[in-house]
Design goal:
Blueprint: E1 17-19, E2 29-34, H1 44-58, E3 67-70, H2 74-86, E4 90-95, H3 100-108, E5 112-116, H4 121-136, E6 139-140, H5 147-164, E7 172-175, H6 181-193, E8 198-204, H7 246-253, E9 259-263, H8 265-279, H9 285-298, E10 306-311, H10 333-339, H11 365-375, E11 382-386, H12 391-403, E12 408-411, H13 415-418, H14 422-434, E13 441-444, E14 447-450, H15 452-461, H16 463-470
Parallel strand pairs: 2-10, 3-4, 3-6, 4-5, 7-8, 7-10, 8-9, 11-12
Antiparallel strand pairs: 1-2, 11-13, 13-14
Amino acid sequence: MSNIYNNILETVGNTPVVKLSKLAPDHVDLYVKVESFNPMASVKDRLAVGIIEAAERDGSLKPGQTVVEGSSGNTGIALAMVCAQKGYPLIVTMAENFSVERRRLMRYLGAKVVLTPASEKGTGMMAKAKELASQHGWFLCRQFENEANADIHSDTTAREILEDFSERGLDYWVTGFGSAGTLKGVSRVLKAESPHTVIVASEPNNSQLLNTNVEQQYADDGSPSKSHPNFRPHLMQGWSPDFIPKLANDVLEQNLIDQIVGVDGAESLRLSKALAQQEGIFCGITAGATLAAALEVSKTAPEGSSILCMVPDTGERYLSTNLFDGIESEMNAAEIEISQSTPRFRFDVSNAPTANTPEPPATKPEIVELVEKTIRNTDEPIVMYALEWCEFCWSVRKLFADVGIAFKSVDLDSLAYQKENLGGDIRAVLLAKTGAATIPQIFVGGHHVGGCTETFDAFNDGTLQELLAINNVVFDRAKKPDAYSFLPTWLHPR
């Protein structure tokens, strides 16, 4: 099969099944289907392709029409990919309590994200999407009711599972539910074509909606009319909204589920980390939750049973959540001890020159003249000697952009400055002139302000603004942000 594709959407699906070697009980074979191998790293890529292409076929989505949907994140990210490739504007409504990584990814892909109050839960963000679609004539995806969601899983996910287990057979299939497209689409195919396979649905044990006799109330269009009374906030983002989706209710009514397992949030977090640290499978919270259900199933499973559980997404969606509690950006004591086990290149001591340290490079008169001409050019009074890849340089750029300061950037690692080592020669001149070997270095009207921190300090105490005024530089005087807020989090000194 060729690995050359016409577009990114053709790479959705055909995700691998991986056998667990360390977390599985000895008496069963435990497998995971790793959906992070989809191009936007979640199972929802399938949903997005299925819904959009079905709407294109039946004419409900017109060329160039805006698409809108409520999402906790993964569906929105997947739709952003599909809409970017196909040329549809996308609006995603999202409750404010979901991880910030998700909304930034959607915006990076070109979508607009409209936040809704956390107090209104999933029903609130879905109601907002419905309201926007009605007001503006946008196409509403309706992932929780749309049969195309289930169909794509019947056509792809279920077929992949049957093929992968065609020889050894599959005894248990374990999944959680969010929109319930995976649950409905796969379970109905397995029931028809692999009837011995036990279908196991899992949900938070403190917020059990499927395992209850309390019915969900629906509007005429199949959307939930209100939150389910059994819903409680839980740790599994993307799982179990505050209502039973119509697709999940279909599964209940059709008796496609053989067993429902409630799982503990703390155990889900523990197993997500265990999958990463013991099996090398980087995943989100719901993967740990599904594995918890699979391990519960394994306790009563016969010897030699094969169990497959779904791993819906990647761990990168959860960097700002409690999944990463205890995972520090700075060195811990053990790492510091390793650093101190050899003498050089350490953060805790100065890397003083040694007998083997080379002398500073000599400066060239023509480069000295070039630097002086550049920094004293009255037409471009602000000059930053920078590196294209440097995060300190980008932090200064962001400050200048925020307050409207125009400047000339001399990117010493760019292709133009690599020729004949021009960038290196300029750095030698800057070192001789300023005594600073670091980049960036900022000049205003020929005056050396300093590097990133010196520039930030000068802005925060007002001396930079005074220097700009002296040199007739126009900028937004009303804006007074904390300059250090433009540093990436891992670089922030405060």
